[in-house]
Amino acid sequence: MRELTYFVAVSVDGFIAGPNGEHDRFLAEGDHVDAIAERFRGTVPTVFADRAGVPAEGGPFDTVLMGWNTYAVGLPHLPSPYAHLRQIVFTRAHEAPVGADAVECTDRDPVDVVRELKSSPGDGIWLCGGGALAAQLADEIDRLVLKISPVLFGDGIRLFGKRSYAPSGMTSDAATRYESGVVIAEYSRA
Predict the structure, then answer these.
(1) 5 - beta bridge partners?
(2) Cβ–Cβ < 8 Å for 145, 7
């Protein structure tokens, strides 16, 4: 059975973005970057991977899930941010923009979609963001991989949105600290 992994950057105080959706304070340079790019190949937007000469194929995921706000961060410049993956965007009010032919926008229940994906053949499923979608899918998350940056936002979009609790029954599998100050913390469902 396929696994759903919530792999996301987060501040020390638990935010995946600032109050207005800012994410530019996360560390994008340092010794953690190459290690993450290799271990979690395919989690860099296709166009950036191509420019940097980083392979996008052969990673642990073949499907990426996003809420509309996470997806819209790249618009209008990246209408198909992860063209090398199946891209599913959850929204009740939007359609895929022009040039986003490879993006599936859906208003279906995210839990139903994830359960269907898990029961079908394929590689891992990556929950890219955002917090509200993660809150809806918390009980479906099999692995949680946090790229913890040594920054404080103080306010913004929480890791699990407005949900008052994280997934239950998670076991700490590993924590890797980098000289940059970034820590990769990995958990799996017990």
Answers:
(1) 126, 143
(2) yes
Domain ranges of the chain: 4-164
Structure tokens at 82: 């992860």
Q: Enter the pTM of the model.
A: 0.94
Give the model's confidence band at 165: pLDDT under 50 very low, under 70 low, under 90 confident, else very high.
low
Contact 120, 3 (CB under 8 A): no
Model confidence pLDDT, tens digit, residues 76-112:
888 999 999 999 999 999 888 877 888 999 999 999 9
The CA distance from 149 to 172, in Å, is 18
Amino acid identity of residue 42, one-letter, is G
The amino acid that residue 139 corresponds to is: D
Give yes or no for a contact between 17 and 9, defined as CB atoms under 8 angstroms apart. no
Category of 84 on φ-ψ map: left (φ > 0), alpha (ψ -120 to 50) or beta: alpha
CATH class of 4-164: alpha beta
Which pair of structure tokens corresponds to residue 18?
A: 């600032």
CB 136 within 8 A of CB 110: yes
